[in-house]
């Protein structure tokens, strides 16, 4: 009867400009799709070159190499008898477009340019690409000679069209178009398109996955249809982790779910679905049927090919499933761990070094590395040959098999407690016990000699010796002495990262991990060029509140009992002298605000787009039970003073895993000045006027 169609989508761990590796992963996905009986295969956005090429999109080399990869795909027997839908940049009439190239049996059927470009948050597509603004319009695209020689075609359709096969009709969306208020699938569905495809380059943010799933399911709930979503996965060269979640939905319900976090470079989902289920679902939606009679039709590219078989009565079809979402604590455990693994293996380093202070932030970072080791062992156990090969190369042992996370952690993870005369024995013991429980190679050292040497140089030159406040010094002296300790730790961290393995008779170097959380960065509560300065930071986009919940998750799931005492201890920098052997300095007292308040300020500043006055207006209602308007005004002013005074620190912020939409990352997500008029005179005057009125 020709009603059961088998389609495949995938999540690929592509890498920007890794044309050879990207091609190999595309081929593997096509092979798997064909082995599952699929007649159509969808891949992620810009999968040929990798999504994160950034300004490399300007280079003609990127276009050339993308077409060279396309040539390999077209001429390969592996791509025969299956419609392949791949993503790459295309130059048409001297404008660059983010495109889908859809081909079958050495013939290009359609090049479909992206209509709605992503240009918010981490996305800058309008910098590199032009949106296709000619709705339902198709032009001739003149193929490069290398493609003409394979396909025998001089020109192919380029524009906003759909494919009409012998048995159904397919229409494409590209990533952002699903999120747009006027998504193409709405009118495509009214025009008879039954299968919608979406190739995405969508990155992980905590608590975001359900939004994407809801959008996909709602796309077909209103007007029926099959929706197929492909997504990139992994770290393709920067701060983002693309979190897979490939899926297939029909008539508003999920029928196939891919993993959100995985070390598999290639993951393929296939589903067999009955087209008659789409048609019968649509039949009773009278409002859609009435709208369909008025719709402006899409150009159709006729394809002499069927996604179904003539005799398919006995073919089983897929049933709806319940999507399983990860908790935020699971997301923190898995997302940054997978990102770290990609960074480690692709940078060809031998492991990580972490300054482990015994506090929540560095302990959370250590737990993420331990989670990474868990994921590696699980992947090897499940037969992942790529992960095994990478693990063997990293530890420099061709016979090695990672089976125990603690043992693997010992090989790839070095932790270092850097004590000073201001450090307590409690934090030293906590760091040592946690290192023992996760299995890291642990170093204890004392920085006092280096600190005294640095301060001694200053004293010799100036004839003055700075003192801490508790010893009669000024706040300037005390802060400078704290910063010297912090910066000495950074210098030593890099020294030990470069030479620890050499001293142990092992090859390679270590990547230094930072552990400043998103709230501390927002407030600027860190020393510029201290241990927050590192190669990468897996928790730089995560709030203190979420990190505390993650620590509790690790206690329960990894049985890391050492974390209990870390959880109960007040956060402290331990840079000021002890009082009777006990820590007197605490983070929240130093900052003049709590971590809970910081999270609220951060979300209002970035997500709610609130300046000082708007933030004050919102908080007098949010906090009316606990603060007077004058107290709220004082808190808001203090936050904005501290934020603006310290904003310059964001320009050198260590590349961090992006996990929160209120991240202050100055690189490209949170674009602000770093030299402010920190008096905020006009803004604060507006607040004061409102306080007096109230």
Overview of the structural elements:
With 694 residues, this protein is an alpha/beta fold. It folds into three domains: 299 residues, Nitrilase/N-carbamoyl-D-aminoacid amidohydrolase (4-Layer Sandwich), CATH 3.60.110; 264 residues, HUPs (Rossmann fold, 3-Layer(aba) Sandwich); 102 residues. The strands form three sheets. Strands 1, 2, 3, 4, 5, 8, 9, 10, 11, 12, 13, 14, 15 and 16 form a 14-stranded mixed beta sheet that branches. Strands 19-18-17-20 form a four-stranded parallel beta sheet, sandwiched between helices. Helix 11 packs across helix 18. The longest helix has 29 residues. It starts with a strand and ends with a helix. The relative contact order is 0.09.
Provide keyphrases for this structure.
EC 6.3.5.1, alpha/beta, Rossmann fold, 41% helix, four-stranded parallel β-sheet, C-N_Hydrolase_sf, 14-stranded mixed β-sheet, Nitrilase/N-carbamoyl-D-aminoacid amidohydrolase, single chain, globular, 3 domains, 694 residues, NAD/GMP_synthase, NAD
